[in-house]
Amino acid sequence: MNKQLIECVPNISEGRDTAKINAIAAVVETVDGVKLLDIDPGKATNRTVITFVGEPDNVIEAAFRLIKKAAELIDMSKHTGEHPRFGATDVCPLVPISNISLDEAAVYAHKLGERVGKELGIPGYFYENAAKEPKRKNLASCRSGEYEGLKEKLVNPDWKPDFGPAAFNNSVVKSGAVAISARDFLIAYNVNLNTTSTRRANAIAFDIREAGRVKYENGVSGKKVLDKNGDPVRVPGKLKAVKGIGWYIEEYGIAQISYNLTNINITSMHVAFDETVKAATKRGLRVTGSELIGLIPLKAMLDAGDYFLRKQQRSLGISEEEKIKIAVKSLGLDDLKPFNPKEKIIEYLLEDTSKKLIDFTVKDFAEETAGESMAPGGGSISAYVGALGVSLGTMVANLSAHKAGWDDKWEFYSDWAEKGQAYKNKLLFLVDEDTNAFNKIIDGFRMPKGTSEEKNLRSQAIEDATKYATEIPFQVMETAYNSMEVMQAMLKDGLQSSLSDAAVGVLCAKTAVTGAYFNVRINAKDIKDRVFAEAIMKRAKTIYEKALAIENEVIAFIDSKM
Question: Which of 76, 277, 348, 452 is the most buried (most CB within 10 A)?
Answer without folding.
Answer: 76
